[in-house]
Design a protein that fits this description.
about 100 residues; mainly alpha; 2 helices; about 0% strand
């Protein structure tokens, strides 16, 4: 992570801190505000940890394996009795 990216991260955390401070002033100790404050504290700690000891950068992007699916008609017998769940119509016996 470059210095400018780290600075941008700190700026975003600072903006979030201001927003949560405004929520705290408006809603007080509401449970959701307390959770947001807890999340902000964790985010701040994680950002500092990342800055102090960043993980190793990825050296190369693995190419995704391409799986060829032929356009030819498949064997319909393989699908006899299969469920049609999630396809938007009721389950019914498949026909040829």
């Amino acid at each position: 992570m470059t210095r400018s990216e780290i600075a941008e991260l700190h700026s975003a955390v600072d903006q979030l801190q201001q927003c949560i401070g405004a929520l705290r002033g408006r809603y007080g100790n509401a449970t959701s505000v307390l959770r947001l404050e807890n999340d902000l504290e964790r985010l701040t700690l994680d950002a500092e940890d990342f800055e102090q000891a960043p993980p190793p950068e990825l050296t190369s992007r693995r190419e995704q394996e391409v799986i060829y699916v032929p356009d030819s008609k498949s064997d319909e017998a393989a699908w006899m009795g299969a469920q049609d769940e999630g396809l938007g119509f009721h389950s019914r016996p498949r026909t040829k």
